[in-house]
Amino acid sequence: MGKNEKTSLGRALVKHHNQMVQQIKEKGRYYRKQENKVLESVTEVTDIDAIIEKAEEAERLYTHDNPTPKFLINLDTNAENNEMMTPEELREQQLKEEKIHAGSLQVPRRPPWYPGMEVDQLDFNEKQAFLIWRRKLASLEENEKLVLTPFEKNLDIWRQLWRVLERSDLLVMVVDARDPLFYRCPDLEAYAREIDEHKETMLLVNKADLLPLAVRGKWAKYFQDNGILYLFWSAKAATAAVEGKPLIGFEQENTSNSDTKIYGGEELLARLQAEAEAIAATRKKSTMKKSTISKGADQAAKHVVVGFVGYPNVGKSSTINALVGEKRTGVTSTPGKTKHFQTLIISEELMLCDCPGLVFPSFTSSRYEMIASGVLPIDRMTQHREAIQVVANRVPRHLIEKVYNITLPKPRVYEPQTRPPLASELLRAYCSSRGYVGSSGLPDETKASRIILKDYLDGKLPHFELPPGFEADADKETDVGPSSSLTDDDSDLSDDEDSPAVEGDLEHALKDLDSYEKENGLAAKKAGKQVRKKTATASYKQHRKPMRKKDRSWRVGNDEGDGMPVVRVIQKPANLGPIKA
């Protein structure tokens, strides 16, 4: 063997050793990065981080034996049939499809595991189960008859929910009192029963101070008829009571009816502890008890655990701060403030567990309704008029005018007189009264929409939903009661305006026709024709140079248009005379 010749065996061993060392280092860097990673909620389908993460997971999990499935393109679309259907028929068709696919709309389940399982195997199983769950929802999104709302796509956020569910004896689902069914997730209650048959789920109806007593009674009857455990609660009022600052406009009813009672902080803690202890006692007495994997025997013997879950920005952290009596968890109006679940020991018998807010998948709402409900961040919205239209459809016209001290445009003659105000009308009226103008000279609708949406969430604009099967007439009178004087004045004005039926309608119709011609440029064409006729009759002025007249038609008043200035361009006639050498 010569001097320059080397054995291939030794080089192969050294190369293999270096590769193993490099893999161990990369693995250590990966786990350190995961520990320092800040959890962020991902709800948008077009988020680039979610797309990259999905591609990486597909590349890592799939091998040659399990190739990526090929999605078939369905060329047989029913677009023409949908165009011929009315909105009511489309809604009925959508409800039928939702009932058919209701079983596929579930919360992701954690795969089975045991304490001695390796970390890599557990991580692999969780990611694969989560990817399968994502594929099921992707198949629902491809169905044109269904509209799937944005949902949480970050696996780490769902892991926080799994931990809280396994630790808790009593699961408290915090919902908004103005629309409790929107924030309720029935499949989460079923999942808690799958983990432990003795677990109970309680609805904590927060912001109950924004509901009239009669509406609270109807919701209480609905919950009792459907076997739902519930309590009425106001985190804002409880926080104000702890700080010694009475909440303006909130008065505790002296009612002996515990069904509609708004609980205080100490009363709520006692009720939660009693419910959790009853569940723990039932679990011990049961002959077919199943010990929860994530709990130790010592922890179960020391105290009971109450877990708080729900949508973002419904008041979970505010509730815990009010119960503890001091600020222990971060609170903000932006959804997604809580990143990791937190445990707070109240006493030797009770421990609270706060879970980050999750956006559960559902069929019942659109993306704009989720923005108006505070589930999705208001400051990140790009289409503000659609979200404002949700507010305008829910809040009566006279209440908007009274709260903001503005006057909204009346419906036109050919429109239904009871229609809600348009989002453009509400935003322009609000910007005009507050002086919100953008850099282009147009109304700053983005700023106005954010303020209106936040007022809507804080309860400045009163609204609420009734339980299914209950009429809204009596409750509307209760809600409109404080502003009855304003309503009477408005009704008198409307009667006076409608008295000259023929002349008033004709004037409004002519005004609408003029504004339509100005918006579409028809007025400019008519003006041009008149100028041409005038120049044709005055032949003795043809030798003069035609003067360019200033067009001041862009100075249009409030003609209920779209707010854009009307631009007129008059082209100077070309000189067609002989060219001088």
Automatic annotation (TrEMBL):
It is found in: Cytoplasm. It comes from the Eukaryota. Residues 487-500 have a biased composition (Acidic residues). GO terms for molecular function: GTP binding; GTPase activity. InterPro entries: G_CP_dom, GNL1-like, GTP-bd, GTP-bd_ortho_bundle_sf, P-loop_NTPase. It holds the Pfam family MMR_HSR1. This is CP-type G domain-containing protein.
